[in-house]
Amino acid sequence: MSSLAPLLQSFFVERLDRQRRASPETVSAYRDCFRLLLFFVAEALRKAPSKLLLEDLDAEMIGAFLDHLEQERHNSVRTRNARLAAVHSLFNYAALRHPEHAQLIQRVLAIPQKRCEQKLVSFLSRDEVEALLQAPDCTSWTGRRDRVLLAVAVESGLRVSELTGLRVSDVAVGSSSTYLHCRGKGRKERSTPLTSATAALLRAWMEEGASGNDQALFPTRGGGPLSRSAVEHLVTKYARLAANSCPSLAAKRVTPHVLRHTAAMALLQAGVDSSVIALWLGHAGVETTQIYLHADMTIKERALAKMTPAGTPLGRYQPPDELLAFLDSL
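Request: output the structure for the sequence above.
Response:
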């Protein structure tokens, strides 16, 4: 009989913190997963979460939990797979500490990821971006903050956690360029340049509200950093307002991640190589950036224009007449 509580505590302290040095975002995601799992199992077995055993989390129970996420909590397949990845990580750790439960652990690890539809990424056009940036009321403090935040998000392609984690000291203002320094997913540090227009907005915002290098770049009224939900709320709010002047926005679900996609698509359409876009966005590899190639119709249209229409007879190259070539060269 193996208690689950010490295993779970050791997993977070020893494996995630000491061995893997997992980011705060990873720890939060795993925490939320196991809170949901413990509540589900405790209710099913009518036991207190602290009294649960590792044996209580068999493959049948984990499968029922995954079904619960999709059917009752209406989570997407991607969310379901992310929760399963957290469970697999725990059971891989348990295999080292509790070899006596090898059969149970192997059955849980054998639960496969579910396939999901690969949809085209959603992004905003230039007109939609302009309407979104004009939506905040710049006569108010929050409106000015929100407009700068939106401009930085659309141009830099930072993740929500990277945006909310920015400090005043992360802005480097030089004589010829301004860029942001952030620590992204996987503890990878990178710097992202800004255009002169966005840099001017950001400098004006910093002159108005910055009180120290350690202050959040986009703070709340209390001075702390904005939360993820706060950023999602303000993006949704301004997208709804911008739809009044740009009706195409009404048909789109605009989220902070859509702004990240918009930055990537703007770079791609400007002719920037996908490897540079991967570095810009902080992707682990170029493969992740390929989703933007699928979404860009202009690239496909240029490829189509180079193709010979169906039914057209293939010609054969004929060298030009020497006399005509001489006249053409004059």
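The first helix runs from residue 4 to 19.
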